C-alpha cells in the first residue's frame, strides 16, 4: 500500500470549530422555535389539566388556593352577596317608584335588573353556603344554569316594557329625585361589580363573575337613566333615548343568559354523571 502524499495532507483544510469561552454555554440553534414550542406545550398541558379537574368535579381554584384561603374567600363572597341583596333591594324599590312616577323605561329596566341582582346574589349565597363544596364544579355549573334562565326571563320583561314605551311615545319626567337615584345606583352597583369580579377571579367562579356582570349592568343603567334624562331635559325631541337604552340593556342580558345556558347545561350533565359514577 502506498502512503498518502504529503501534499494531500498539507493541502486539506480542516473544518472550523467554534471555541466557546470558559464559563458560558452555547445558545440553542433555534431559540425562538424552542420557546414557542415550550409555550404551546405548557398551554396544552394547562388546558388538559383544567379538563381533568372538571372531569373530577372540581374547579381550578382547588389547585390554586390552600384550604384556609378558600374558606376565607368563601366567607367574603357570602358577605358581599348579603350586602348586594340589601343594597340592590333598596335600589329596586326606589327605581320602581321612579319608573311609575316619572314614566321612565330605563328606570323600569334598572329596577328589573336590580331585582335580578337580588336573585343572582341569593343563588351565590346558595352556591357558597356549603363550606365543603367551595370547589364543587357541579354546584357551580348548576348555579350558573339557574342564573341563565333568570337572565332570559328578566330580559324579556325589560325589552317588552321598553318597546311598549317607545310605541306609545311615553315621555319621561325629570327631577332631582330621579338624579339622586341614578347617581346612587350607578356608584353602588359599579362598586359591587368590581368586588364580585375580584372574588370571582380568585375563586374561578363563573357564578360570582355572572353576578358581577349583572351588577355592572345595573351601574351602567343607573348612569344611563341620568344621561337620557339630561338629554331629554335639553332636547325634548330625543325622547326615544330612554326606551332605546332599555331595549339595548334587555338584549344584552338576553345574549349573556343564552350564552350562559349554552355553556353550562352540558357541564351540569357531565358533572352529574361523574357524581353518579362516584
What would your notes on this structure say?
There is one protein chain. The protein has helices at residues 6-11, 31-55, 61-64, 67-102, 105-127, 137-167, 176-203, 206-234, 241-277. The chain is mainly α and 278 residues long. Helix 7 (176-203) runs antiparallel to helix 8. It is elongated, with a radius of gyration of 30 Å. It starts with 5 loop residues before the first helix and ends with a helix.
Describe the secondary-structure layout.
Blueprint: H1 6-11, H2 31-55, H3 61-64, H4 67-102, H5 105-127, H6 137-167, H7 176-203, H8 206-234, H9 241-277
Helix pairs in contact: 4-5, 4-7, 5-6, 5-8, 5-9, 6-9, 7-8, 8-9
The separation of the N and C termini measures 81 Å
| Helix share, percent | over 70%
Query: From the helix content, strand content and strand pairing, which structural class follows?
Result: mainly alpha
Number of beta-strand segments: 0
Largest sheet: none
Any idea what the radius of gyration is? 30 Å
Would you tell me the overall average pLDDT?
77
Strand content: under 5%
List the uncertain runs. Answer: 6-10, 41-51, 274-278
Number of helices: 9
Name the helix and strand elements from N-terminus to C-terminus, one letter apiece.
Answer: HHHHHHHHH
- Inertia-based shape: elongated
Q: What's the quaternary structure here?
A: single chain
